[in-house]
Design goal:
The protein is α+β, with helices and mostly antiparallel strands. Helix content is 48%, strand content 21%. The chain folds into two domains: 180 residues, SH3 type barrels; 109 residues, Alpha-Beta Plaits (2-Layer Sandwich), CATH 3.30.70. The protein has six helices and ten strands; from the N terminus they run H-H-H-H-E-E-E-E-E-E-H-E-E-H-E-E. The strands form three sheets. The protein has a five-stranded antiparallel sheet. Strands 6-8-7 form a three-stranded antiparallel sheet. A hairpin with a 3-residue loop joins strand 7 and strand 8.
Length: 298
């Protein structure tokens, strides 16, 4: 009976406090998670107007920073709750300082990679190397194919990238050795047009300039272009053909869409001007999706 009475007294006293501490920490963590999600959703709506690829650098940084602060606050809340629970259970917290120090040193040696990941993530976020919504190509330790795609999440430990095929690639921040940001401030669409060396290059340049002017006047393309596409002229020389390059500055992440549109416009413009479009086959076929043309009879 005495034991049962003591248990009831404990449950109505310290036991109830333990339950309240656990319940309060869970509710507070849920509230922080809800508030962080609301903030990030508002940042996305204000920065993109519905497009997750086109956003300002400040908005991307705020999004990543909000996620990190949310994660750190939740970890802090649960850590404090554990100490309070141990104290209510009668475990001498001060007596755990020395063992915790030894355990921390041991974990530090055993978890050097995790510490490196966290430090690397801290510098990635504070230096604004990339953020949520950026199109990046990440090279990791050991070489191999880089992880390329759109950044979906940046924490202190890992970066999650969704590839063009829809695959989610998780990269530990400490393993990153090189990052190519394809959507920082602005991007550039580069279109190389192979033409036979017998074609009048000045005529080709004028056709391409008109293609750029038409694209810049197009209401569908104008919002994606920062200025009219520029014809850079002959980029490379070959025995049978030369490459004429067209470049266009675009909104971040929109260089691929603009490049595809410009290639289609080039094909149509050359056909209107009597330059027959040929489809290279075999080893001479270009692998970069460029457009090849030859002179034809009008």
């Amino acid at each position: 009976m005495d034991a049962l009475r003591d248990l009831q007294d404990w449950l109505s006293g310290r036991g109830l406090e333990v339950v309240l501490i656990i319940l309060g920490s869970v509710l507070l963590a849920r509230f922080i998670s809800w508030g962080g999600n609301r903030i990030t959703d508002r940042i996305d709506r204000n920065a993109t107007g519905g497009d997750a690829l086109v956003r300002s650098e400040a908005a991307k940084h705020r999004h990543s920073l909000t996620q990190v602060i949310q994660w750190a606050a939740i970890v802090l809340i649960y850590s404090i709750a554990v100490f309070f629970v141990l104290d209510r259970l009668g475990v001498p917290v001060t007596g755990l300082v020395a063992p915790a120090t030894v355990l921390g040193v041991g974990l530090g040696f055993g978890a050097q990679r995790i510490v490196g990941d966290v430090l690397a993530g801290f510098f990635i976020i504070t230096e604004r190397q990339y953020g949520f919504g950026d199109v990046v190509s990440i090279q990791v330790v050991g070489g191999g194919d880089p992880a390329a795609g759109t950044v979906e999440d940046v924490t202190l430990r890992v970066t999650r990238v969704r590839s063009a095929n829809g695959e989610v690639v998780t990269v530990p921040n400490g393993q990153i050795v090189k990052v190519v940001n394809l959507s920082r401030d602005w991007a550039r669409a580069v279109v190389d047009v192979p033409v036979p060396s017998s074609v009048d290059v000045n005529r080709v340049n004028e056709i391409l300039r008109e293609v750029g002017r038409e694209a810049f006047r197009d209401p569908a393309m104008r919002p994606l272009l920062l200025d009219p596409p520029t014809v850079m002229g002959v980029e490379t020389l070959g025995l049978d053909e030369v490459n004429v390059r067209v470049v266009a500055r675009t909104l971040p992440g929109k260089q691929f869409e603009v490049g595809r549109d410009l290639r289609a416009r080039v094909v149509l413009a050359f056909r209107r001007q009597g330059l027959q479009v040929r489809q290279p086959t075999g080893p001479e076929a270009p692998s970069d999706g460029s457009t090849a043309v030859q002179e034809g009879v009008r």
